[in-house]
Amino acid sequence: MGKHKELLRVILAVSLIIVGVTHFVVPEQYVRIVPPQLPYPLELVYLSGFYEILGGIGLLVPPVSQAAAWGIIALFIAVYPANINMAVNLIKIDHIPNSPWVHVVRLPLQAVLIAWAWWYTKPSDKEKQASLIPKSLIPKELELE
Q1: Residues 17-57: tens digit of each pLDDT
Q2: CA distances for 36 relative to 2, 39, 102, 109, 123, angstroms
Q3: Range 113-117 contact pairs with CB under 8 angstroms and sequence separation of 24 or more
Q4: What is the rounded distance in angstroms from the CA atom of residue 69 to the CA atom of residue 59?
């Protein structure tokens, strides 16, 4: 698994960015699952989408990747009530089967996503870490030990 850590980092980062963008493209899909007790559902959808995009990019910027991973964990925890609301009330979202069995599997999947992000809270091999920025452009004082 360790030899695939950086490939999996890119997969997680790109997935977060794509899903984050969909929060702006089709926000009504996400607004439906925001628990009714929370105010400003559309704004919360935009906010979570923004942080998904930011987290995905941050995972690929070595000086901030560990902080980004912690932020992604916080985000996964913060949006969990929406996932619970979707499951409990069988709220239909396009391209996701609306079956109680899907929800039974989907809810624990959040723990897998949290564990996946947690993997990147640990220091990575500077030479192998996936990066949007060429390593030669990262100032030495910003490199994490």
Answers
A1: 999 999 999 999 999 999 999 999 999 999 999 999 999 99
A2: 41, 7, 22, 23, 39
A3: 113/76, 114/73, 114/76, 114/77, 116/8, 116/12, 117/12, 117/69, 117/72, 117/73, 117/76
A4: 6
Inter-residue contact 105 to 86 (CB < 8 Å): no
Structure-block tokens of residue 4: 């695939």
Q: Which residues pair with 93 in a beta bridge?
A: 96
pLDDT digits (tens, 9 = 90+) for 79-134: 999 999 999 999 988 888 888 888 888 899 999 999 999 999 998 888 889 888 88
Which of 135, 120, 144 lies closest to 2, judged by CA? Answer: 120
What does each C-alpha distance from 107 to 112, 117, 142 come to in angstroms? 10, 16, 37
Q: Which ranges constitute the DSSP H helices of the chain?
A: 5-25, 27-31, 41-59, 65-78, 80-88, 100-118
